[in-house]
Design brief:
This protein is α/β, with parallel strands linked by helices. It contains eight helices and 15 strands. The strands form four sheets. A seven-stranded mixed sheet has the order 5-2-1-6-7-9-10, with helices on one face. It has a four-stranded antiparallel sheet with strand order 12-13-14-15. A hairpin with a 5-residue loop joins strand 14 and strand 15. The chain is globular and about 65 Å long.
Length: 288
């Protein structure tokens, strides 16, 4: 079997690791272009490319799918399968039609729930514990719309809710990679009948932005009860993708860590005041 892997962050590398364990290493990897990163604007390869180079898998990094002749590595081979995991580009129909067995996608929700750009972080932010899981889907021309090959619910224990975003990213990537590794051979051998999604039950999530990450709280009077849980869910949902913040006395304060007390009150433990280094929340309050 010859297949191509289209991968991005944060799920791309953990899924590749699971495929490698199952001896399913792609013949070609497609990933995002190198980017300028950090204050020094150093040109940096995406993690999926670094993985590919380590495993000696050929890589291409298209910045567009408008110029078909430049994508000869995709068009000049009789591919059996394409796999897409957290890839940043929307693939055009002519790409979806190339492989003999279609294009599979690892989507980190229980489709048709949470279609869209941020299913993991939205599930945390909105407290949607029953919708946390992974779906293997055969892609079609519409977003997260294609028929389902398999899916698995990933439970989160009460004591671990809400999870930090990066932790759930990794958990669902590992679950999705293992499920994909089980699914691919059965799919290629014709043992799976794709099941159409129940589109009438579809829900959607948008890409989370910095505007979404602002909290309206008083650092001297933190919430309790349901409001505290909702706030903590938002804090942990944004962990690793910009972090939540509040503005107090015209100063912006990023929240790095927080938890609930035994009586259900929000307790912030680590913050980064604007223009300063990370400090404990207790020290921040002392300096107000």
């Amino acid at each position: 079997m010859k297949f191509v892997y289209f991968g991005g962050e944060p799920l791309g590398v953990p899924v590749l690791d699971e495929l490698k364990i199952a001896d399913l290493v792609p013949d070609l990897i497609v990933c995002n272009p190198d980017r300028l990163v950090g204050r020094k604007q150093a040109l940096t390869a995406p993690p999926v490319k670094t993985w590919a180079n380590k495993e000696e898998v050929p890589v291409i990094q298209p910045d567009s799918y408008k110029d078909q002749p430049s994508l000869s590595k995709l068009t000049s081979t009789d591919w059996d399968l394409f796999v897409v995991v957290a890839y940043n580009f929307i693939l055009p129909n002519w790409i979806l039609e190339i492989p003999q067995h279609g294009v599979l996608n690892v989507h980190p929700s229980l489709l048709p729930k949470l279609r869209g750009a941020s299913p993991i972080r939205t599930a945390i932010k909105e407290g949607l514990r029953d919708e946390i899981g992974v779906t293997i889907m055969k892609m079609d021309k519409d977003m997260d719309h294609g028929p389902i090959l398999d899916q698995i619910f990933v439970p989160i224990a009460d004591e671990n809710w809400p999870p930090y975003g990066p932790d759930l990213d990794q958990k669902l990537a590992a679950a999705g990679g293992a499920l994909l590794a089980d699914t691919i051979p059965s799919w290629i051998e014709g043992q799976i009948v794709p099941q159409p999604q129940e589109h009438q039950f579809a829900t959607y999530c948008h890409k989370l932005t910095k505007t979404d990450s602002e909290l309206t709280i008083d650092p001297n009077n933190l919430p309790s009860g349901k409001e505290a849980l909702n706030t903590l869910q938002k804090i942990r949902a944004f962990s690793g993708i910009g972090d939540t913040f509040f503005v107090y006395k015209r100063n912006r304060v990023k929240i790095k860590e927080a938890r609930l007390t035994s009586v259900g009150k929000l307790e912030i433990t680590q913050v980064i005041p604007e223009g300063k280094n990370e400090i404990s929340f207790i020290d921040y309050l002392k300096n107000l």
